[in-house]
Design goal:
Strand order of the largest sheet: 2-1-5-4-3-8-9
Distance between the termini: 27 Å
Number of strands: 9
Number of helices: 6
Structural class: alpha+beta
Length: 162
C-alpha cells in the first residue's frame, strides 16, 4: 500500500548522486526541516521517464523552487552510475537531485514498488510524485495509466504548490 498523506517518510539510507560521486545519506537528512518535491519513476533512460516525466521538472525547477521548495528529488530503481549518466544526458544535473534506489529498499518502504518482471524490468518504482514537508507527506500523486506522467508530472505538482 502506497504511503499516504500525513505519514512520515520512513528512515532509510539512500544514495544521492553528487558532484563527488554517490553519497549515502539518511532520509532524515534529506527531508527533515525542509520542503521537498519527490518524484519516482520506473527507470532512467526509459521512454516515458525520459520524454514525459523528467523534462517537466527540469523545465519548471525554478518555478517549483520559487514556491518555497528546498529541493526536487528524482528516485529510480537504478544504480548510481546510471543515475549520474541520466542526470548528465538530460541536462538535469545541478537542478534535480537524483537518488539511486539500487535495491528498491526506499521504494518498498514507501509502498511505491512494483514487480514488472513481465516487461523484463524486475522490481521497480511506480510512477508518482509527492510533497514532503519536514519529513511528513503532504501530497501524493500516483500515476494511473502506464506510459503517462499526468497525475505525477510537474504541471500537477505546480497546481498543488499553488
Amino acid at each position: 500500500m502506497p504511503i499516504e498523506i500525513g505519514a512520515k517518510i520512513p528512515t532509510a539510507n539512500i544514495l544521492k548522486i553528487t558532484e563527488e560521486g554517490p553519497a549515502e545519506i539518511s532520509t532524515r537528512d534529506l527531508f527533515d526541516g525542509r520542503k521537498v518535491v519527490v518524484f519516482g519513476l520506473p527507470g532512467a533512460f526509459t521512454p516515458t521517464c525520459s520524454l514525459n516525466h523528467l523534462p517537466g521538472f527540469i523545465e519548471n525547477y525554478e518555478i517549483i523552487l520559487a514556491k518555497g521548495v528546498d529541493e526536487i528529488v528524482c528516485v529510480s530503481v537504478n544504480d548510481h552510475h546510471v543515475m549520474k549518466a541520466w542526470a548528465e544526458a538530460t541536462g538535469a544535473r545541478g537542478k534535480i537531485t537524483f537518488v539511486a534506489d539500487w535495491d528498491a529498499a526506499f521504494s518498498k518502504a514507501l509502498g511505491m514498488d512494483a514487480d514488472i518482471s513481465a516487461g523484463k524490468l524486475g522490481i521497480r518504482s511506480i510512477r508518482y510524485s509527492m510533497i514532503v514537508d519536514d519529513g511528513t507527506v503532504s501530497a501524493v500523486n500516483l500515476e494511473e495509466k502506464r506510459g503517462e506522467a499526468t497525475n505525477s508530472g510537474a504541471a500537477a505538482m505546480l497546481e498543488q504548490l499553488g
